[in-house]
């Protein structure tokens, strides 16, 4: 019997790589949509040792015809839409691109499924950024949304279009409202990785200081390896639905810095400088998720404490920096 097929957009990103590994371990034939880029995109798949095990199909989520071809070619039982312009900071300088990729891209996937593979189950990568200027101190599936960036607004559109296709056309479409999740495969522009990389480089004498923006911001940070399990579990449910995926603990960027620098025997206060240019036009000051529904219905909970996550990231950065020194 042919293996169950899964199609992942954003397969070369942090979550795409971890999810591909998880699905391969579960016996899926894993297909990924690969947009054309001039530089090396496959480093995460190589890092996890799975670059030869996935089948990459030329395509871009803004190009509906390529998305339809990818769906027709892979005949997926499950489709995970992880592709996005996912960096909040860039969404103010490239709001239209962010809208096209992060918003319309999701609708292209939904439409391709509706036309070519209506029985496929669909996962949309929604985000805690949709809560933005929070309306409740702890955010759950019933908390009103208030996005604070073009990224958050684009994701909110994609989220409602996912709900809409579920309710209008009966698609098995679920939306995971994931809070921040990190790993050694996180892009270096995001704050945790920026900090763990800097801590490693400063320890090795390759860098002197680290410039950051608002270190009083608070985030509910988990491990990406844990969070991709929740994505898969959502698509194993008989009924599609929306779920908050979070750890239920929030920490300041300042305290996260302290963990990272302590891990290499340094004090963050001696190396971190505040750069007003890194402050955002509108900030999401604090996020804290309630993962109760995911725990009860999916049997999922986060298992990696922030201390372990940051140590894991610092260790990985030390190893990589030593190798390239
Ligand atoms: P990521 O590392 O930035 O990965 C995004 C992926 O999308 C990259 O492989 C990227 O390729 C690809 N992509 C960008 N534009 C594309 C296009 N036009 N067509 C096809 N692929 C395209 O993000 P992540 O952290 O893995 O997150 C995965 C998803 O979850 C994203 O949708 C993100 O917005 C969402 N999310 C993330 C978090 C988090 O904390 N990590 C939380 C909630 C939701 P290039 O890099 O080559 O552009
Ligand atoms: O910022 C503050 C910054 O860029 C976290 C994406 O995966 O999670 C991510 O979005 C906080 C913010 O992540 C710097 O102002 C201070 O308050 O790591 P970040 P994010 O904006 O929370 C959500 C859930 C997603 O969906 C997104 O795709 O840290 N901060 N100083 C800084 N942030 C950065 N990047 N760089 C700094 O120097």
Number of domains: 2
Which residues form runs of ≥5 with pLDDT under 50? Answer: none
Structural class by secondary-structure content: alpha/beta
Number of helices: 11
CATH class of the largest domain, anyone? Alpha Beta
Cα-to-Cα separation, first versus last residue:
48 Å
* Largest sheet composition: 7 strands, parallel
Task: Please provide a brief summary of the model.
The chain has 325 residues and is an alpha/beta fold.
Task: Walk me through what this model shows.
The model has no long low-confidence stretch (mean pLDDT 98). The protein has 2 domains: 5-181 and 221-245, NAD(P)-binding Rossmann-like Domain (Rossmann fold, 3-Layer(aba) Sandwich); 186-219 and 249-287 and 304-324, Alpha-Beta Complex (UDP-galactose 4-epimerase, domain 1). A 7-stranded parallel sheet has the order 3-2-1-4-5-6-11, sandwiched between helices. It has a two-stranded parallel ribbon with strand order 7-10. Strands 8-13 form a two-stranded parallel sheet. The protein is globular and about 55 Å long. By secondary structure, the protein is α/β, with parallel strands linked by helices. The longest helix has 22 residues, at 95-116. The chain is built from 11 helices and 13 strands. Ligand F7E binds next to helix 4 and helix 7.
């Amino acid at each position: 019997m042919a293996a169950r097929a899964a199609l992942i957009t954003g397969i070369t990103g942090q979550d795409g790589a971890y999810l591909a590994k998880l699905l391969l371990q579960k016996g899926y034939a894993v297909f990924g949509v690969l947009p054309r880029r001039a530089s090396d995109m496959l480093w995460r798949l190589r890092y996890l040792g799975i670059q030869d095990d996935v089948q990459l199909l030329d395509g871009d989520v803004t190009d509906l015809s390529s998305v339809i071809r990818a769906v027709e070619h892979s005949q997926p039982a499950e489709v995970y839409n992880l592709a996005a312009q996912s960096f909040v900071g860039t969404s103010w300088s490239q709001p239209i691109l962010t809208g096209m990729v992060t918003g319309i891209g999701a609708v292209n996937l939904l439409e391709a499924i509706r036309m070519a593979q209506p029985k496929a189950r669909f996962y949309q990568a929604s985000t805690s950024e949709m809560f933005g200027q929070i309306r409740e101190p702890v955010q759950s599936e019933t908390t009103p949304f208030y996005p604070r960036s073009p990224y958050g607004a684009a994701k909110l559109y994609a989220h409602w279009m996912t709900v809409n296709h579920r309710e209008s056309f009966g698609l098995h479409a679920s939306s995971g409202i994931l809070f921040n999740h990190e790993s050694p495969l996180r892009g270096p522009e995001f704050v945790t990785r920026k900090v763990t990389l800097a801590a490693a480089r400063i320890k090795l004498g390759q860098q002197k200081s680290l410039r950051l923006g608002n270190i009083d911001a608070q985030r509910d940070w988990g491990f990406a390896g844990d969070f991709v399990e929740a994505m898969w579990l959502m698509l194993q449910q008989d009924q599609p639905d929306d779920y908050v995926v979070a750890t239920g603990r929030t920490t300041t960027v300042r305290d996260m810095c302290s963990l990272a620098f302590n891990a290499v025997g340094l004090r963050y206060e001696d190396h971190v400088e505040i750069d007003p240019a890194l402050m955002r036009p509108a900030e999401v000051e604090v996020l804290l998720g309630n993962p109760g529904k995911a725990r009860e219905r999916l049997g999922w909970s986060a298992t990696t404490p922030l201390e372990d996550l940051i140590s894991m990231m610092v260790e990985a950065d030390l190893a990589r920096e030593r190798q390239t020194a």
